[in-house]
Specification:
homodimer; 285 residues; alpha/beta; 8 strands; 17% strand
Amino acid sequence: MTHTHQTAPTQFAEANGVRFAYRRFGKPGGVPLVFNMHFMGTMDHWDPAVTDGFAKDREVILFDNAGVSSSSGQVPHTIAGMGANAIDFVRALGLKQVDVLGFSIGGLVAQEITLQAPDLVRRLVLVGTGPRSGESMDTGTPEGKEIFGATYKSPDDLWLRVQFTPSEASQAAGREFITRFRRRSENRDPEVSQEAASRQRAAIGNWGAKRDNAWDYLKQIKQPTLVVNGSNDVIIYTVNSFILQQRLHNAKLILYPDAAHGSLLQYPEMFVRDVSSFLDQKQWA
Amino acid sequence: MTHTHQTAPTQFAEANGVRFAYRRFGKPGGVPLVFNMHFMGTMDHWDPAVTDGFAKDREVILFDNAGVSSSSGQVPHTIAGMGANAIDFVRALGLKQVDVLGFSIGGLVAQEITLQAPDLVRRLVLVGTGPRSGESMDTGTPEGKEIFGATYKSPDDLWLRVQFTPSEASQAAGREFITRFRRRSENRDPEVSQEAASRQRAAIGNWGAKRDNAWDYLKQIKQPTLVVNGSNDVIIYTVNSFILQQRLHNAKLILYPDAAHGSLLQYPEMFVRDVSSFLDQKQWA
């Protein structure tokens, strides 16, 4: 049976004392694409239009990193620790090379995976994310603090503000995402615990802390990299995507119009097309 | 007979006392793509890999603006004047709607076309260019002055420095471009005169002059716009492409790795694919 985002069973892989929950589906035989999730997100927070879109042409692997949702263990206090855990997970599947996609905090983890295990990573996709010591990444943005600090009738209302702009078109796209997000009705992941969220927050602050020559490390990443964001990300400012592209050795940047942190959720078809084109391109600078 | 970049005859259209030289080829029936050339460039300075790449799926129109190469008339002292001339030319062909691509100074002209005749323009592609009062666009960049001010054994050596980065890969791509650039052997355009170049330079300086609220005008452009540049444009700094995307109403940005002012010449296939995907996309923000 060919599985989809909705039907893929949650499986488990053991590594270094952690039982990692994952789902794996799509067209096997090539280099799988491993998805690294955003702050407070579980495997269910990926957009089925994105994951199933990729699954037509490649294998897709979703997972909960250590301490998150269905995975055992504890969320580390550093992004480097999360990167090490992600590498353990990928190796536990017996994989020698993968493409790595990271969204928000997942984009920080994706950078750490690449730095710590360069042989494991063929190509890198960084969405709605930034470099160490990026602009307003130590304290978080004022907009982000207001959005995450407010109270909402439903968690949906939080995500509509985090991931989409206030424009009518973006909010409409957001409501369509919420509908897709609910489509998987069985065996959903449990929500991320407050403790796990608080540890994730500490790790982001640690990553964002101001350092001298903070961006030099990006020159160590030699993999072809695609950096993607919305024009108006107020969670991790869009300029951080520009900084990533300017400092990385070999990166292409795409910014989408009238889009916020969740540009991939707003334009899932364009995102899948743009990323697939990048991943499949034979010759690359 | 189906024409290509190499075989398309130079034709002429008369408007407002100017005899405009143009070449028109490719697949008719859709919205034609009108190309606006860079400083000191003629129709021959377009890359056949780009123009023939587009011509497979759409009609391509190259032209010399007034006072340039095979066209009569005089180069205006302002970009606004060049935009008005370009509009005259497009209307002289009897066209009601076109897609407009502009490269470098052609990107400034493309903005003026859109501002002055919004109904004429369906979608806009701005390559290696910037906004009014853009960063270092009043005086020109120090790198640009050095590059254009130096003496070269061959004009090829000038363009290799203007359009490509110093990296081995970029220079190799540059030499391939030069080979393609020579492929049209008959009925080439004459070089741009020193007087025309000097007037173009004055118009660029005028466009670049510092103004208050200089970027507000970009909000008047409602057309879906794709902004493209290389990661390291030292002629019109890459940050100007970021500024365009951030201030335009509805723009997508793509920056290519290890590329300079001539990113479209370095990655012609990727450029054609990315731009075609943008032009053909049915739904747009």
